[in-house]
Amino acid sequence: MTSVLIRTGLLVLTTALLGCGASGGGPNSPTPTTGPSVRFVYAAPPDRIYRADYAAGISSAFQDLQSWYREELGGVTFSLFRSSPEYCVLPREADYYRDDSWTRLMTDIQGCLPVMYDSPDFRWVLYADIMHTCNAPGRIGAASRGVTIMGRVDLEGLSGRVMANDCGNVDNMPIGRWRGGAGHELAHTFGLPHPPGCAEGLPACDHGSLMWLGYRTYPNTYFSDEEKTQLRLSAFIY
Ligand SMILES: [Zn+2]
Predict the structure, then answer these.
(1) 129 CA distance to ligand 1 centroid (A)?
(2) Which residue, 83, 197, 218, 219, is most buried by CB atoms nearer than 10 A?
């Protein structure tokens, strides 16, 4: 699936940006959790309407993943900052985010929420209702340093539908595949890499782990013992 992107450039947190989206979790969100937590965001450009089914799909996925992690990790899991996604309206129309999507989204989201790398308080999960141009630089559907960003194909998948991805391919899989994808990227934000040998195509690769092909068969997948040990060391798992 995706690799953890290592970004060594300086992080620029721009606060004075074009436009400013609404934030907040909506009327159904309880008081935010106070400990280290996972904070998920639904961001849409102004030429896309708010989709209640997208918001519901994200909420359901993360509640399901929270339970699945707890089961896998023997009683500990991550906390959710809110039970429903915080909503942001991006300052520019969808086409602007087709290229260099990662950086443009990270920059423009700052006008709405303080999404940042390596935060001691939050792991950020950003769903943006945009499409990324096939093979263009700055793709999404990846994770880096405590942040993951996914796009419209995942939003559709979490809502129980399938659509062609940025390269025109249709991944005709049930909703579990998209929840599994979210759980995989989330684990990257906790610092988990892909299993040893997988990227190199070695036989030792643990193919069934959520951290390799297991995301496609979620919830029928697992973390290896090594992965469980590493996750339990995360400040976000308690
Ligand atoms: Zn990955």
Answers:
(1) 21
(2) 218
